[in-house]
Write a structure and sequence with these properties.
By secondary structure, the chain is an alpha+beta fold. It is 35% helix and 25% strand. The protein has two domains: 85 residues, Alpha-Beta Plaits (2-Layer Sandwich); 90 residues, Alpha-Beta Plaits (2-Layer Sandwich). It is globular.
Length: 187
Amino acid sequence: MAVYIAMLRGVNVGGNVLKMERLRALCSALGWSNVRTYVQSGNVVFESNGLASSFVPSIEKKLIKETRLPVSVIIRTSTELKKVLTHNPFLKGTEFDADVSSKPVRHYVTFLASEPSKEGLRNLGAIQFGNDQFHVAGKDVYLFYSHASKDSKLSNNAIEKALGIRATTRNWNTVSKLHEMAVELPR
């Protein structure tokens, strides 16, 4: 069985409540094994046979009956999440500001449902984000906020609108914890 990480966008914000106990039950009903959740924002680590592309419609269909508003789900394998952790260009100090790596609390990743088009990338690149920085790598957008993320124009909504793709954003600590949970699953 493969290990997957499902990240839900839009739960437990704006009155769109979903208890994590209920989310675990919904995932288990889909045949997912060793289902674990992390924090209340809809992060699920699980094992299953099958392809991630088949999981998204199944869980989103179940969530329609459970939440007040639609919920988007983005899924990555544990291998893909490990690659995200090891390829953050802001932590490598490459072409970006050397001071960046000293502030990991300002690091985020936006996970995209699919790879962006060239037009979407042009749209995103045309937006002025001040000193905030981003780097697109396949289906992931690495973010570094010069100040608090809540004050930035480089938001999940702005990224979705520019790219025309569903997305969900997680802070670096959450990404790290989800990978840790995936590695800890019993084999």
